[in-house]
Specification:
Helix content is 36%, strand content 12%. The protein is α/β, with parallel strands linked by helices. The chain has a ten-stranded mixed beta sheet, with helices on both faces.
């Protein structure tokens, strides 16, 4: 059986175009700051584990592009922009966690916490995008038990557990976060606790009040999901979406940011799914949305909207997300990926045991063992998934 093309999670960002006028300065500035960090790193009094990882990272950054191995750490373009917006005091912590996120999934290293945690404020979405699992009524109909909103109390408990241990936190997963009743309080509670706090939104409900809540929370990155530069194509891909409303909301957000938060370090990005090149003119999309955001990106299409009905595909490579991230659904279920949006593989619930214990516990260990021992074809939906 011929295996299908692989969807490599760590390389899913197909393209990224930024409008920074100082790209060369950013690259040079980041490199000089990293050189300065290497000189003084031994005197910073860092924990031995952190120091060891940082030394590995700084050593890898000296490796030329032609000599890199799959596990060699290097800085991707969007990382340079993130570093540019960091204070020097935060650089060691950022680099440590960036290395864990980028390299541990390749080397299959594990420590007490996932490099990234995606917290799902809600699994409910107002869209039914053609490439998304929201088209599956087994997810969207409440009677099946997968649709709901996270309580503020549970959100706070998760944040309290991971603060100081995890720096990359995304407030999004299966649903539209700005639909969440307590989203403004959630943003306020997470503010200042993570270097890489991120939110994904389709921007339908991005009113002025929510815009201020996002900007006051000092997120690192705000991602707007959009895949077209015209209303007709947008409507074909983002079912139930209103192109004019989304565009107006994003434009207003930019105005508020520039007017009321001129020193904001928030990076705004429009991210689209590269689903149909005949209908999606990437250059036109980049030019159109580039007027309103800092970055325009495309991610590869992953056929997760029918993961449970896909036929076994013969892929035997271990999925990197088992070492990269975890997802915490609105009801506390902790899941290894969002391809498994109906939680067949759920190893535990954070309302019953700490997130770190689930991450290092028996359920996750069994999943990792099955993947490493070429047994992913025995698991659903792994057997029909192309992600590695």
């Amino acid at each position: 059986m011929d295996t299908p093309p692989l969807y490599r999670k760590g390389e899913s960002l197909q393209s990224l175009v930024g409008r920074s006028p100082n790209r060369l300065r950013e690259l040079g500035g980041a490199r000089s700051r990293l050189d300065a960090l290497e000189v003084k790193i031994a005197s910073l009094g860092l924990p031995s584990t952190m120091l060891g990882v940082l030394n590995r990272a700084l050593s890898d950054l000296k490796v030329s592009q032609g000599e890199r191995s799959p596990s060699t750490f290097f800085l991707r373009p969007h990382v340079f922009e993130e570093i540019e917006r960091l204070d020097d005091k935060d650089l060691p912590r950022y680099l440590y966690h960036r290395y864990r996120y980028d390299v541990f999934p390749t080397t299959k290293e594990l420590d007490g916490y996932p490099p990234c945690v995606q917290i799902e404020p809600t699994s409910i979405c107002n869209f039914r995008c053609v490439f998304c699992f929201q088209t599956d009524p087994l997810l969207t109909l409440r009677k099946h038990g997968h649709a709901g909103q996270m309580s503020l109390e549970l959100f706070k408990a998760i944040v309290d557990q991971i603060e100081g241990h995890v720096e990359f936190v995304t407030m999004a997963s299966r649903g539209e976060p700005l639909l969440t009743k307590n989203i403004e309080q959630m943003l306020a509670y997470a503010s200042g606790k993570f270097l890489g706090l991120k939110m994904n939104t389709n921007a339908t409900f991005l009113d002025e009040k929510k815009a201020h809540a996002i900007l006051q929370a000092e997120l690192n990155t705000l991602v707007f999901s959009a895949d077209a530069a015209d209303a007709e194509t947008y409507a074909q891909l983002r079912i139930n979406g209103d192109f004019d409303k989304v565009m107006a909301n994003i434009k207003r957000f930019k105005q508020i940011k520039e007017r009321d938060y001129p020193n904001s370090r928030l990076i705004t990005r429009v991210s689209g799914v590269a689903f149909d090149r005949e209908r999606q003119d990437h250059q036109a999309i980049e030019a159109f949305w580039g007027e309103y955001v800092d970055q325009v990106a495309f991610v590869d299409y992953n056929p997760w909207e029918n993961a449970y009905s896909n036929t076994p595909n013969g892929i035997d490579e271990a999925c990197s997300d088992l070492w990269r991230r975890c997802f915490v659904w609105w009801d506390g279920k902790m899941n290894p990926c969002d391809v498994d949006y109906r939680s067949f593989l759920c190893p535990g619930n954070v309302e019953d045991e700490p997130l770190s214990e689930i991450w290092t516990g028996k359920g996750y260990a069994t999943l990792r063992k099955n993947h490493l021992e070429v047994q992913r074809q025995s698991l659903t939906p792994c057997q029909g998934c192309v992600s590695v």
